[in-house]
Design a protein that fits this description.
Distance between the termini: 25 Å
Shape: globular
Helix content: 25-40%
Low-confidence stretches: 27-42, 61-68, 102-121, 133-173
Strand content: 15-25%
Largest sheet: 6 strands, antiparallel
Structural class: alpha+beta
Amino acid sequence: MLMVSFHHQNVWEVLAKAEGLTLLPGAEKKNSNDRHLDQTKDSALASLQYGGASLLSIFTSNKSLNGAQDASGNEKDLIATFSTQAVYQVKAGYRVYMHLKTPTQTKKGAKPAGSHSGVVAPFYIEIVGPKVANPPIVGNDGGRCGELEDSLDQKDLSKTSLRMFFDTKKREDKYGFDALNSLLKRTDCWPDQPSSLETVDSPNALQPAPINYLSLSGILNLELTYSNTFAYYFRKPKVLKRVLAPLKILDFAGDTYTIFREKENVDILCKGQQHLILIENKILSDLNGRDKSFQDQLDKIFSSKDSDSLIDDLEAEEKSDSGHEVSQLSKYYAYGQLLASQKGFSKEDVLYLLFVPDYQRFFLNKEKLSHYLFGRKYWIVFYSDLKDAFQVIANRPEDYDLTNKETLLLGDFLEGLSYQAQETDCYYENEMKRRFLNAIYTLNHPKQ
């Protein structure tokens, strides 16, 4: 059994694997409340099975399946269907990701053999680590492979159980099954010895997540929250200049800008006297627009024949950058060039920025952007850099022309930036891992 954590938009991070699984006897019990079961037999819930038992059974009569007890001898409200002999956490310094997207999106109109209608989304596994050169895509041979030719419909997969998905009698394509088997057999990302299954108290008290207007309002991970706040503070020329300072682009930092939100879907557009800045902000999301062709993007942006020469230039650039995947980056690049031509700016007068949370640096980094059409035109600014810049601003707000109210809002916003600057998108990931191992130990040692 692989234990995974949702990372973002069709990507899961593999945290550990469990070996020696045993179905607990309690999971095979039937619900004795036949009347209640009859009342719900027509519902979808009554038909769902897990570990050989209906979910109704698990969540009613089968609590405390193996009689696990707490320190006082009372039965815990414990729900389980399997116990395991060994758990291996991914080796320190390594990260393993399961994707439902292809590294190079199939071009519009192309339909690989065996694919279904809908979005083309093969399953593949990516391993990132200190001894893994050019993070490999794990295929059915256990080594590095290119794009998986066969494909699966994303909608179909999301509505199908993994058990059905990997049933080779139902499907001829086995890429996902083979990739997972290859992952389990690898030696580089798994430790030689299993993680200790001993009950270990947390060395430090669990620190609560920050309580501020972002977390209380449920918008701590909402991209709109940060884009709106960035746009608000960027109205102050000195604030934007401080954010741009690490890039050491003096010409851009010295201009004054008018700020716009969602112009042609660009998150933040800064129109200056001599320059343009286009900012795309990413929170728990990947690059989109990968199902379009570059010609589709040009048709949507350009409506006047007056731009024919610019379109010719962009198409020529595309040919020189051939083989790279189309995405929203190519669309925004074309839009930036259109605005520049309208204002009489040169290509060098347009700056393209991508704001990326630190926990997504494995997916959106300089090397990854080089695989996208015009991806090399973008500068990446990680949230840790944004947090540092706004910390400087918060320490001396008077130097940045902030009012008292604007200064007060910065405190909560800084905590949000700190959250996005973490290596994981969850405050409690390490604590959850510890408690999970403790629960397994308790299941295997009920008398202790």
